[in-house]
Every structure is written in structure tokens, then in C-alpha cells.
Write a structure and sequence with these properties.
The structure holds two protein chains of two kinds. By secondary structure, chain A is α/β, with parallel strands linked by helices. Helix content of chain A is 45%, strand content 34%. In chain A, 45% of the residues are buried. Chain B is α+β, with helices and mostly antiparallel strands. Classes of the chains: A alpha/beta, B alpha+beta.
């Protein structure tokens, strides 16, 4: 898994690529929580480059979203496709997260 | 770790997750499974294997036995299913008895865990559990 962190004026973009499984998910959680702890108020997680996610990845996203909410940070997700989109739908996470189609829409909403 | 045509025997450790996933991917290719099914197979084996690592880590026998075969069935239109099985020798543990997670809870109330087995049962066409000769045998099948 590769995570690209892009700090913008509108907030921080985290682009996640590859596979988010039980081994790699803690890395995402650590990086996302660091952005929130640093005081960021808008975080967009772009999953367009993510090929695979398991329940461990969903747990890391949920944990991050809970911390974001407590810190009054808005966390949005975009770029859901294929298997990742199906897992989001089945697990009900697409109704918990603010989901946008693209990065631009996520920052604009 | 040992492997023959039908089974992989491997230690119940998260360090072995990549080897387990690779075994399933290779078996799927050998068995000519449609490539679109592969992400679901990888998800199912990760959830089942980690369930054993986390909840049913055997004390007397450390290995987990993993199988992946094509099986004839009358339940699928094509007459065949791809079945993944996991067997461990830990305490009796039936994942199908776990309660369904509350999916409609909002972000503050939503439980963080409990999604793994639920994802398996939702993705697969058929799941079964049996306690057999002191082992937990869990089988997950997909229509081909």
C-alpha cells in the first residue's frame, strides 16, 4: 500500500493506492490520525487507486472517522470503485461516510 | 508450512497472511476461476484466516489447514462451485453464530469490529461450519 499525503489550502488529501489489508491498514490509520492530531479540519481520503480492502481496512477508516468527528474535523471519502465500492455498500460504510465521486467534489462539498 | 495439491498447512500468524493469499490466488488460477471472483476469494480467506489467528489460535496444533477446490453441485447453474475451507484445532468456535453488526448506526455509535464474518457471509453463496474430530471446519463456496 502506498499513501500520498497532499496538503492543500482546502484541506489534506490522502491518496491510498494498492491493498489495505490487516498488515497495511495500521499504516493508513497512523498517518490519518497524525493529520487529524496536527489540527487539520478537512481530510479527503481518495480510494480511486485502492484495489482491495478487507474488514481491517474498514476498521482503520472507521477509527479515523470517529477521531475526526471528535476533533471536529470533516472526513470525506471519494473514488470508490469495483471491489472497494462493493465492500463499502455491503458493510454500510457508504451511509456513514460523506462519499463523493471525485477529489474535487469531495473538497467542494 | 507444507502444501500439496489440495491443502496448505501453515502457522496461525498474521505474518503468514501474504502466503495464504498467494496460495488462494494460485489455486484460483490453476482451477480456471473467473478473474472477477479473485478479490472476493482474497477477502474471504483473509477474514477467515485472521479470525483463526485472533480468536481460535490452537494450543496443541499450531497449523491451519486451508483448501481450495472446485466441487460439483446442483445448486449452481453451471453445476460447479469454488469452495475455500479452513480447519483449525482450537477451541470450538462457530463464526456463523456471531450476531450481525448494526449497520445503520451513525459514526459515533457504530462498532469498529464485527464486520469480517459478516462480509464473508454476504460475499459468498454458501457458508457452513462443522465441529469435526476436534477441529473447526469452515467452508465457503461461490457459484461458478
Amino acid at each position: 500500500m502506498k499513501i500520498v499525503c497532499d496538503k492543500r489550502t482546502a484541506g489534506t488529501l490522502l491518496q491510498v493506492n494498492g491493498r489495505m489489508d490487516a498488515v497495511s491498514a495500521p499504516d493508513f490509520e497512523k498517518q490519518c490520525l497524525q493529520v487529524i492530531e496536527d489540527g487539520e479540519k478537512t481530510v479527503v481520503v481518495d480510494l480511486a487507486g485502492l484495489e482491495y480492502i478487507s474488514s481491517a481496512g474498514l476498521r482503520s477508516l472507521l477509527t479515523s472517522a470517529k477521531k475526526a468527528k471528535a476533533a471536529k474535523c470533516v472526513m470525506r471519502v471519494c473514488g470508490l470503485a469495483g471491489m472497494v465500492q462493493e465492500v463499502f455498500q455491503v458493510s454500510g460504510l457508504n451511509s456513514i461516510f460523506a462519499v463523493a465521486a471525485t477529489v474535487e467534489e469531495a473538497f467542494a462539498s | 508450512m507444507s502444501q500439496n495439491n489440495d491443502f496448505l498447512n501453515i502457522g496461525a500468524s498474521i505474518d503468514n497472511l501474504a502466503a495464504v493469499t498467494e496460495y488462494i490466488s494460485n489455486r484460483a488460477e490453476t482451477l480456471l476461476v473467473p478473474i472477477m471472483l479473485l478479490p472476493k476469494l482474497e477477502l474471504v480467506i483473509e477474514e477467515l484466516f485472521l479470525n483463526i489467528v485472533n480468536h481460535a489460535n490452537p494450543k496443541s496444533r499450531k497449523d491451519v489447514e486451508i483448501g481450495c477446490t472446485r466441487q460439483k453441485t446442483e445448486k449452481a447453474p453451471g453445476g460447479e462451485m469454488l469452495c475455500i475451507s479452513t480447519r483449525d484445532w482450537g477451541p470450538e468456535f462457530n463464526p456463523l453464530q456471531k450476531e450481525k453488526p448494526l449497520l445503520e448506526e451513525d459514526i459515533e455509535k457504530r462498532a469498529i469490529g464485527g464486520l469480517g464474518v459478516y462480509l464473508v457471509t454476504e460475499m459468498a453463496d454458501h457458508c457452513s461450519y462443522v465441529r469435526q474430530d476436534g477441529s473447526n471446519l469452515f467452508t465457503v463456496c461461490f457459484k461458478l
